[in-house]
Amino acid sequence: MRTLTFDQYEFDPSDSEEGMEISIVTKRDRPFPDVVGFASAILGAEAATKLPSPIAFERCDRSRNARAYLERHADVILPSPCEWPTFVVSDDWDDWDAWQSGRKC
């Protein structure tokens, strides 16, 4: 598993206090059967059982920003349209946390 962390100095303007953390796992690295298994390994079993129902990535309110950030900072290019199941854990004005299950196209 790889975890990429970006602090406010990676964003414009740097005083925006934006930050981003991306955890990526491939089947080769750690064969989790699904997102719940992955979340359980990262957050713990109790937190993983509280994941909401997934929605298509394109239906997420912040998918446009997330797509741009993934491409710019992690060189991850999502298919368009992207229907990958996405679990939105937090959707506050200052915190967006989502887990995505996808496969390379």
N-to-C series of helices and strands? EEHHEHEE
Radius of gyration: 14 Å
**Spans of at least 5 consecutive residues with low confidence:** none
What is the terminal-to-terminal distance?
A: 20 Å
Strand order of the largest sheet: 3-4-5
Q: Could you tell me the mean pLDDT? A: 81
Total strands: the figure is 5
Kindly name the structural category.
alpha+beta
| SS field, number of helical segments | 3
Domain module count: 1
What is the subunit organization of this protein? single chain
Shape from CA axes? Answer: globular
- Which sheet architecture does the biggest sheet show? 3 strands, antiparallel
Portion in helices: 10-25%
Strand content: 15-25%
How would you portray this structure in words?
With 105 residues, the protein is of the alpha+beta class. Helix content is 24%, strand content 25%. The chain is built from three helices and five strands. It has helices spanning 35-43, 45-48, 63-74, and strands spanning 2-6, 20-24, 55-56, 85-92, 95-100. The strands form two sheets. The chain has a three-stranded antiparallel beta sheet, with no helix packed on it. The longest helix is centred in the middle third of the chain and has 12 residues, at 63-74. It is globular and about 40 Å long. The mean pLDDT is 81.
List keywords for this structure.
globular, two-stranded antiparallel ribbon, 105 residues, alpha+beta
In short:
The protein is of the alpha+beta class and 105 residues long. The protein has helices at 35-43, 45-48, 63-74; strands spanning 2-6, 20-24, 55-56, 85-92, 95-100. It has three helices and five strands; from the N terminus they run ββααβαββ.
